[in-house]
Amino acid sequence: MADGDRYGGDVLAGDWRAPRGGRASEVAAEPDLVVEDVETGWCGAVVRVEKAGGMHVVHLEDRRGRTKGFPLGPGFLLDGLPVVLTPPVLASRAALDAARQQTSRTASGSTAVTCAPARVAVGSRIFVEGRHDAELVEKVWGADLRLEGVVVEMLDGVDDLAGAIEAFRPAPGRRMGVLVDHLLTGTKEARIVDAVRALPGLRGEVLVLGHPYVDVWQSVRPARLGWTRWPVIPPGKSWKHGICAELGWPHDTQADIARAWKQILGTVRSYADLEPALLASVEELIDFVTAASTDAQ
Question: Which of 43, 61, 267, 285 could hold 36 in an S-S bridge, CB 3.0 to 4.6 Å?
Answer without folding.
Answer: 43
